[in-house]
Design goal:
- The chain is α+β, with helices and mostly antiparallel strands and 223 residues long.
- The chain has a single domain, classed as Alpha-ketoglutarate-dependent dioxygenase AlkB-like (Jelly Rolls).
- 15% of the residues lie in helices and 31% in strands.
- The strands form three sheets. The chain has a seven-stranded antiparallel β-sheet. Strands 7-12-9-10 form a four-stranded antiparallel β-sheet.
- It is globular, with a radius of gyration of 17 Å.
- The N terminus and C terminus are likely disordered.
């Protein structure tokens, strides 16, 4: 992992270069940088958010997602000042504008998110996806999209960033084109985990063709 980005006013990131065009910036305990208490932020967001359980269409039927969700296109609805400040600092640091935010709530060890790319952004050559992770520390896996089917990396994560307790993670560049990410289930009892997510794409390069993660998937009933 590279040394922290240097500047008196820089965000407290260390960069993990995944490949020539893909990277992850990591700021551990980011909320302490804002003089905010991570547990208090977690509890406020958990208790003041209108959560819902979405569905994905798999195996020719709707299946409830194993997490809760929420979203907004307005920063005025953010339930904590620390999150609003994080939003503002991210935009300034990367020189971009986010149009809204989303939240995911993993209630316990049974909630999870399968390995995937955020293909619904369509243009994946230059993106920024920021995650402020509150609550329990859980695995967060990154694995190369084009790993050989005979390689161990095809089924196991090459990187486990394991964020939690106010860490900030930013996936950038061609990360959504070249890498998969997900939140696996864990075997031991685990407290709640919330990720606050901001996404941006430069809309450059060749757009994706085909369904995104939430699109229906159909399977043959034949033998």
């Amino acid at each position: 992992m590279a040394s922290p980005l240097s500047s008196a006013n820089a965000m407290p990131f260390e960069r993990l270069q995944l490949d020539e065009n893909s990277w992850v910036d990591i700021a551990r305990n980011f909320l302490t940088y804002l003089n905010a208490d991570a547990q208090e932020v977690f509890e406020t967001v958990r208790d003041q958010t209108d959560w819902y359980q979405g569905n994905v269409f798999r195996y020719e039927r709707n299946i409830p997602e194993r997490r809760l969700s929420a979203s907004s296109r307005s920063n005025s609805e953010i339930p904590h000042d620390a999150i609003r400040t994080t939003w503002r600092k991210l935009q300034h640091h990367y020189g971009i504008q986010f149009t809204g935010y989303a939240l995911s709530y993993y209630r316990n060890e049974n909630d999870l998110l399968a390995m995937h790319r955020d293909r619904d952004m369509r243009w994946l050559d230059r993106t920024v996806i920021a995650l402020l992770v509150l609550g329990a520390r859980r695995p967060f896996h990154l694995s190369p999209r084009h790993a050989s089917s005979t390689s161990n990396t095809s089924t196991a994560a090459l990187h486990d960033l394991a964020p939690g307790e106010g860490d900030l993670i930013v996936m950038g560049g061609a990360c959504q084109e070249n890498w998969l990410h997900g939140v696996p289930g864990v075997s031991k009892p685990t407290g709640g985990r919330i990720s606050v997510q901001w996404r941006w794409t430069a809309k450059s390069g060749r757009p994706q063709i085909g369904p995104g993660y939430r699109a229906p998937r159909y399977f043959s009933r034949g033998a």
